[in-house]
Amino acid sequence: MNIKKITSCLIVTIFSCNVVFADEFLDECLKISKSRDMKISVAEEQIALAQTRLNSSVRSFFPQITLQSKFSKGSTALQTTGTGDYTKEEYNSEEFGIKAVQPIYEGGGTRATYRYNNLMLEAAKYNYTKTKEELFSKVKLAYYEYLTLKMEYVALSKAFEKVEKLFFKTRLEYKARAISELDLAEAKNFRDKVQNLLNSSKINLEFATKKLIETVGVVSLEDIPAVVSDELPSDIPEISFTLQDCLSFVQINNLEVKIAKAQIEMAEQKVKINRAKVHPKLYIDGFYGKSGEAYVTHPLELTTTWNIAAKLSWGLWGNSLNASASTEKTDPSEIVDSSRRVETTEFNVQLGILDDFQYFVDAKESNVGKNQSTAELVDLLKNSRLSVEKAYNEYVVSLSEAKVLRDEIRLKERKLALMTKRNDLYEVQTVSLMEESWKYAETISSFAKQLYTNHSSITELEKLTLMNLR
User: What are phi and psi of 206, to 5 degrees?
Assistant: First the structure.
């Protein structure tokens, strides 16, 4: 299916779904369940956590600024000339200023980390939507089960009420010797069959009611400010999309597919983060401020001092190389101690031998993670296509069956009305009318089952395609 057709389908869906399918009771159930579900709250917190991670990775692109202040106090031992004795002199020292560290090049590790966290935020949003849609799907299934069973129970109650009156009539006919004992036993059998259907429907309805209450998270259905219809529907829900349309929507909208694709991209960024370890990393480290040192018998004069250092870190496939070069200068205009250095240049190189074996673990782990995510996506696409086709086939079959059964209900209602009139004229036996009433009740029960299958299959398709198909 081409892009133009997909776009047109999306437009039709957006503007028609609210008109075609509107159920106030279901809308209220969805609102209440969403506001009370703990998984939804956790998913929202995961989005906030992922956003915090992303903000932290953005911070890595900018200099790390540190305000520092240091004060020390101590004493020195000075040897007295000629005597060999020592005298103690107390001194004070102070330093304050600003320190900054700026990464110049990190082998793409910072950028890959940012992209990884951005994908994590995207995946968290997908997970939130997936959690919400799974909750909505559970609520819809519980609601449609309750709805169809309530319709079935009301219709069967009316049918049983009529059958009960007919059975009472057959008993009178038997007492009047108008029918045989066999006819009476057959009438009782028809009455019992309808009663069994009614009892089964009542038990199922009570369980469906509890299930809906638990799923929505209310104390009773009275807490939901809406009313459910209990009449058998005249129309069966239909969708205007083909199987190929639904399969195309899975490729575009399916949340599990989106999450799997995001995980593949995250795995690729993990590989880049690990590869950055074998690239040289260059940092600039600088300090600017005031410092000074003097004996307590002298006033403490602070002089301007600054230093700058270039630092290199390089992971060499299990080894590590660290090198730095720094220069420090001090304003010599106010120097108390004549031996104090006013300019210093320092070089430092360190080579760690086999001190980074974790690199090999991380490299293997990132590659395995990428392959695993790819394999899961392929498997997920297969399963999604099969699930869509299965749900669509169930929809097609249930739609056809429900339409036939709905027409059959109408026909039986007309036939029962005619037979009732003829029974009043003693042209049709009451037992025959009861038999037809039992068949009518069976048709209602079969219709309710097919109607629920129709609703549940469309709900499953909507969850898989993330589309309002009705």
Answer: -60, -40
234 exposed, middle or buried (CB, 10 Å; 0-12, 13-18, 19+)? exposed
Q: What's the distance, CA 253 to chain centroid?
A: 14
Q: Label residue 369 exposed, middle or buried (CB < 10 Å: 0-12, 13-18, 19+).
A: middle
- In the DSSP assignment, the letter for residue 296 is T
The CA distance from 416 to 436, in Å, is 7
Alpha carbon distance 310, 284 (integer Å): 5
On whether the 3-53+112-270+363-465 domain is CATH 1.20.1600.10, my answer is: yes
Kindly report whether the global pTM for this prediction surpasses the value 0.85: no
277 DSSP 8-state letter:
G
Helix (H) or strand (E) holding 68: strand 64-79
Report which secondary-structure segment, H or E, holds 402: helix 358-424
What does the alpha-carbon distance between residue 295 and residue 76 come to, in Å, rounded to a whole number? 9
For the segment 251-277, the average pLDDT, to the nearest whole number, is 86
- Answer yes or no: is pLDDT of 335 > 50: no
pLDDT digits (tens, 9 = 90+) for 409-460: 999 999 999 999 999 888 899 999 999 999 999 999 999 999 999 999 999 9
